[in-house]
Amino acid sequence: MGIELLILDIDGVLTQGEAKGLDLDLMATLAGLNRRARQSSDAPGVTVCSGRPAPYVEAILQAIDGHIPAVFENGAGLYLPLTYEFLSHPAARAANVFAEAKQRLLATLVASGLAFVQPGKEYTLTLFATDASETSLLYPRAADALGPLTEEVALVYSTSCLNVLPRGVDKGQGIAFLSERSGIPADRMLGIGDSDVDLPFLACVGKSAAPSNANPSIKEIVDYVSTQPTSHGVRDILSRFEVLP
Questions:
Q1: Residue 178: which of 16, 96, 64, 61 has the closest Cα?
Q2: For domain 96-166, is the CATH number 3.30.1460?
Q3: pTM beyond cutoff 0.85
Q4: I want to staple 170 with a disulfide (CB 3.0 to 4.6 A). Which of 37, 200, 212, 217 is the partner?
């Protein structure tokens, strides 16, 4: 079955991560793929499925000349570039208890100086350890701070941070939302991810791949693991699946 859509995580896949330079040559290549896709139904388009907030995802889609909806905040929302709409996932809208969980974490982990938050998010929370060497402490400290509220949220590590998500919100749900809005079946998508938060997303697409820097849990489930890291791995994957002409 052919590939209609290429979906990339951003940090650790499309880029090397927070505050790192963009691979502008790869961005130009992806923009070319999107222009081809608009001209021919035989060419796959490109979009992203990321934990990043909506404004950042919008900027990335501008860089790759994207026209297909993109997932932001780990499935909590969908950005529609053609109509400039930002839609929240029904599960995110229903997560009333999440506000209390967020306040507990701000009053404990953040107020104590252990962590800081990634700005700009509306429906989820991403915690970075103030001292990167203490990233492994974020999960147990967050669980302690949340107490019974741990039943209402999911704590999932990305490459350099801890994501706190309302129950029912994940990248897999985001892909289902994207599929519904775009009309592209999930089994005709090729997904590329690198960290545990990508597991639900990669499990529901037709083809999956990872760069060499991906977590072991990701490498175990994908169809192909590149020998190259991050954006170099993306180029290798595009060639492997014959996405590039």
A1: 61
A2: no
A3: yes
A4: 200
